[in-house]
């Protein structure tokens, strides 16, 4: 294998740090720039160059990347990240009490564990408690990322999760009453302020996601098509407002025109369904016996 | 506005450029002080596209490699002009004061 082929393969491996959608759209172009900038006889990427690609790839994965013109979606995504932050603060506050499992399970939550069981299974119960406390944070982050990428299913799943959080907040399901472990979509142990605040953040985010201004951003399937269609809607708006012809040209990036539109990953639909199934199972499991 | 962003927009002020062209132009504009790496460049280009300050002008395939040319939008031109005017005003103020200080010192 030639030096150039080795170098190209190494660059391709580094580009795997980028999200797939970004890689599909920009990968060949970035690769062309990297190869053009390579020194004669260079066989592998430099350390600084590799670090730059990894850092940029991770940054691309973490940021929502919502266009500035999609103001309502940008605001919703920021609120969802705020929800994740509040849930994280709650976990940090709750951590000492989670570790004090006797108080947590016997006195606060009235769980059907005996003291002997808590002594025997203590570490396992603490681990499960902490893992389950991480679930809502993971869901917030996942919803922020998926909504930021224009996934239609994410908007629907966010609404379903708000519904579950509402039931949890109002105590309709009493998730903690019949089982030894607990999934709180809103934190309930430390007074009403934090749960109500968390729920309001979720409500505001879902309200923004369903605003008419957001709808153009959520067009299935795949973010590339969603972005393209959003830009087409913007073009229609510009046309109707009689903006200059130059603005019309700018509203359609040439790079997207004629690009093969990728379908959204099917696994995401199955993951959403699996989560819904798990949630239904948890709710049924948690219902107090008659 | 970050310096790299300002330099990228400046590189596009003369017309559409492809990625490698922007890197070499930025190096030239900054007299070799700023060397953009590909990862940093494409993060910035993606953000500038999302903010509608630049758009893709055209695509070409040269030697089997994709070249995508970017150009400023009217909003990008306005933003660059405003930033250049701001920097010029700051530089002028600094030079005025330095001249004044120099005059008093001599």
What's the overall average pLDDT of chain A, rounded? 72
* Order of H and E elements of chain A: HHHHHHHHHHHH
Helix count, DSSP H or I runs of 4 or more residues of chain A:
12
Coarse structural class of chain A: mainly alpha
Strand content of chain B: 15-25%
Q: If helices are DSSP runs of H or I spanning 4 or more residues, what is the number of helices of chain B? A: 4
**Major pleated sheet of chain B:** 3 strands, antiparallel
Total domain units of chain B: 1
Give me the CATH architecture of chain B, please: Orthogonal Bundle
Q: What is the CATH homologous superfamily assignment of chain B? A: Winged helix-like DNA-binding domain superfamily/Winged helix DNA-binding domain
What is the count of β-strands of chain A? 0
The percentage of residues in β strands of chain A lies in under 5%
Please name the CATH topology of chain B. Answer: Arc Repressor Mutant, subunit A
Oligomeric category: heterodimer
Question: Can you characterise this structure?
Answer:
The complex is a heterodimer of chains A (290) and B (106). Chain A is an all-alpha fold and 290 residues long. Chain A contains 12 helices and no strands. In chain A, 70% of the residues lie in helices and 0% in strands. In chain A, helix 1 packs antiparallel against helix 2, helix 4 (71-99) runs antiparallel to helix 6 and helix 4 (71-99) packs antiparallel against helix 8. Mean pLDDT of chain A is 72; it is low at 175-183 and 242-264. Chain B has a 3-stranded antiparallel sheet with strand order 1-3-2. Chain B has a single domain, classed as Arc Repressor Mutant, subunit A (Orthogonal Bundle), CATH 1.10.10. Chain B is elongated and about 60 Å long. Chain B is an alpha+beta fold and 106 residues long. In chain B, a hairpin with a 2-residue loop joins strand 2 and strand 3. Helix content of chain B is 61%, strand content 18%.
